[in-house]
Every structure is written in C-alpha cells, then in structure tokens.
C-alpha cells in the first residue's frame, strides 16, 4: 500500500485549490501585497471567529509571541513561566525579549501547565505566563487567569496548535490578555508559508502591536516612535487563510471524529491516549507508549509515518539553560513516550483502522 504520511498540507491545499487559486489571482491583480485589504479582511474575520476585539497579522507564530511579550513591557531580567513540553518557538520568543524562561511541570492528564506548579514558581521577577494548548488540548485557562489576577501577571496564550479549540463553548485565545497563533502549513488553519497573528481585547495592546510589527510606526503615521520590527503578514497568506477559515470548524470536527475512531480501537490496549476534552481540536493525536522508538520504527516498516513531539523537552536545550537543569518528572516522562499518529483528515480518513491494527500488532496483541 502507499505510504501514509504523518501530515501533508499539500493535500488540504489541493482540496480547496479552486477557491485558493481565485484568491491568489485576485491578490496578484491588486496593487496591495503587504498590509492591504486581504490582511484587514482576515484580521476582522478571525477576530470575529474567536470572539475578540482585535487581531493583528504578523510574520510568524514566533513573532506573535515575542511581540505580545514586548507589547506588555516584558524585557531584560523578567521571568516568564511556561512549559518545557512545547516547540522551541515558545521559549525563543521569551529570549528575544531579553527575558528568562521559567519552566514548570505539566499536568499529566491535560499535558498542559500544572496550575499548582505555576503558582509555586511565581516570584517578584515573574512578568508573564505563557500556557501552551498542546496538540489542541485546552490548558486550564479559568484557573490560570485567576492565579495571574491575584499576582498581577500578564497571560499570553500560545494557541499555535489550538485554532478553534474551546473551553465551555468559549474559544481559546479569548481568555488571556493576548494570544498568539501560528499559520504554519501543518496547523489546523495553515497557509502556504510562515505567518501568524496576535489577538487581544485590549485597545492599547492592539495599538502597540500594530506599531511594533511595522518598524515602530504608529498607525496613520510615517515616523518610527520606538524600536520596532518588520513582522507583517503578507496579502497572499491572508487571502489563502480567508479561504480556509470558513472550513476550520468542519475540519476540526473531522479531526474529532478521527480521534474517536482511534480511541475506540486503542482504548484498553496499554497505551496512554490523548485527553478526551470536549473542546479539543486534535492538532496532533499523540499516544504515549513505553518503547516509543521501537513503535515508530515498526510502524515505518508498515508504511505508516509518525512524528515525535517534543523530545528532548526544552529545559534540556542548551539555548534555554540558565543554570542547573531543573527536574520536571511528568514532562520528561511524556517527552520520552509521546508519538504523534496521522490525524490530518486528508491523510487519516479511511486509515485509522489499519493504523490502529498495526499498533496492536507491534504490541503483540
């Protein structure tokens, strides 16, 4: 049989190619390629989708995090609490502001920040908390916002994997003081290159972000008033994302259905399955198994591609060490066991049964 890739964003583009081609043609025929009407439309529509006041399109998800931190005054010597079970972008954004990542352990049930560990880690140098909604599963935002409120700390949601995910019917990205999204091609809402966005309900943060992304030039002016950056979403990415946004909920529903198929096949076979949260959108379906590397090799021999997210965890990366390596037992355990199965609808539809049976075969079941 043909190889089953872990993900293939080109298949999603092909699915909506006719509409995407029209949007690209319209953009190419316009006189606007940077921060034009396509970006404005996407910013408006994505903010409305999430139920927030503002959306600011930027060049990447990493920039979205870094500019969010800068917009809130986070800088040299400040500490930012986050998880080590995430992509390097989360902590790189902290370093880019001159701040220090302060890693705390995860809750093994949600695989997101342990709220008790967050509160215990707060010091007089703590300026912000960045919860990561890992693999599209919600962190405990109500409790985290309560902790942040008691200590007067900013909260920036890392929603790079959580487009459309919810807690009790409320979209992730609408809880924190700001939230950062990535539209990297493999995301549930992904373009054909790098781009990102920041959303917020705070008018002052929105104004600062629009200046920061464009050389520190305030909207409607021509002079830089402060240090800024070149971090602007281009019109082509915005046009493509506007085509795909109306299909996001349906795509997330397809992912939830595929996750349900995996769950029915793999429950009770000795694996740790992803959290079964109502609002999850399954950017990844990551199982945890003790001999992860053997499982990955064996599945590859059966023409099933998988991926490892994220090993080693960030507190073992040289870039983020500020002294002795902290011990984060739950994070380290999961990092050594997680294996992401195919879950993208264009890849996994019709294949979950074969993948599940192959996993059980490797386990001798």
Describe the structure using short key phrases.
365 residues, alpha/beta, seven-stranded mixed beta sheet, two-stranded antiparallel sheet, 14 helices
Low-pLDDT residue intervals, each spanning 5 or more residues: none
β-strand amount? 5-15%
Helix-residue proportion: 25-40%
Shape: globular
Short description:
The chain has 365 residues and is an alpha/beta fold. The chain has 14 helices and 11 strands.
Question: What this model shows, in words?
Answer:
This protein is an alpha/beta fold. Helix content is 39%, strand content 13%. It has 14 helices and eleven strands. It has helices at 9-15, 17-29, 37-50, 61-71, 88-96, 115-121, 141-151, 203-212, 235-244, 248-266, 292-301, 329-335, 345-348, 352-362, and strands at residues 54-58, 79-83, 100-104, 126-130, 154-158, 166-167, 170-171, 178-182, 196-200, 285-288, 338-341. Strands 1-9-8-5-4-2-3 form a seven-stranded mixed sheet, with helices on both faces. Strand 6 and strand 7 form a beta hairpin. Helix 10 (248-266) packs parallel to helix 14 (352-362). The longest helix is centred in the last third of the chain and has 19 residues, at 248-266. The mean pLDDT is 97.
What's the SSE blueprint?
Layout: H1 9-15, H2 17-29, H3 37-50, E1 54-58, H4 61-71, E2 79-83, H5 88-96, E3 100-104, H6 115-121, E4 126-130, H7 141-151, E5 154-158, E6 166-167, E7 170-171, E8 178-182, E9 196-200, H8 203-212, H9 235-244, H10 248-266, E10 285-288, H11 292-301, H12 329-335, E11 338-341, H13 345-348, H14 352-362
Parallel strand pairs: 2-3, 2-4, 4-5, 5-8
Antiparallel strand pairs: 1-9, 6-7, 8-9, 10-11
């Amino acid at each position: 049989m043909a190889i089953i890739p872990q993900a293939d964003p080109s298949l999603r583009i092909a699915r909506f190619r006719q509409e995407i081609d029209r949007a690209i043609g319209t953009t190419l025929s316009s006189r606007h390629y940077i921060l034009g009407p396509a970006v404005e439309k996407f910013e408006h529509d994505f903010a409305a989708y999430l139920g927030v006041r503002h959306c600011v399109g930027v060049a990447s998800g990493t920039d979205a995090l870094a500019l969010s931190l800068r917009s809130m005054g986070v800088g040299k010597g400040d500490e930012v609490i986050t998880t080590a079970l995430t992509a390097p972008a989360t902590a790189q954004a902290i370093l880019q502001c001159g701040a220090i990542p302060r890693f705390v352990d995860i809750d093994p049930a949600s695989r997101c920040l342990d709220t008790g560990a967050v509160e215990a880690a707060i010091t007089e140098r703590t300026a912000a908390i960045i919860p990561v909604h890992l693999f599209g599963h919600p962190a405990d935002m109500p409790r985290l916002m309560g902790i942040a409120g008691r200590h007067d700390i900013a909260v920036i949601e890392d929603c790079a994997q959580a487009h459309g995910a919810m807690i009790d019917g409320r979209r992730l990205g609408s809880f924190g003081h700001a939230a950062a999204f990535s539209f990297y091609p493999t995301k549930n809402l992904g373009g054909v290159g790098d781009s990102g966005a920041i959303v917020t309900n705070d008018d002052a943060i929105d104004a600062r972000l629009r200046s920061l992304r464009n050389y520190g030039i305030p909207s409607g002016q021509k002079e830089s008033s402060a240090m800024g950056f070149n971090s602007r979403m281009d019109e082509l990415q915005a046009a493509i994302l506007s085509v795909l946004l109306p299909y996001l909920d349906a795509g997330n529903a397809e992912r939830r259905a595929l996750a349900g198929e995996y769950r029915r096949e793999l429950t009770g076979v000795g694996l740790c399955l992803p959290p079964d949260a109502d609002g999850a959108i399954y950017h990844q379906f990551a199982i945890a198994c003790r001999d992860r590397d053997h499982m990955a090799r064996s599945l590859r021999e059966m023409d099933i591609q998988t991926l490892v997210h994220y090993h080693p965890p960030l507190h073992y990366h040289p870039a983020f060490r500020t002294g002795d390596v902290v011990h984060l037992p739950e994070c380290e355990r999961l990092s050594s066991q997680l294996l992401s199965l195919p879950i993208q609808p264009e890849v996994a539809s019709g294949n979950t049964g074969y993948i599940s049976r192959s996993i059980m075969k490797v386990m001798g079941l």
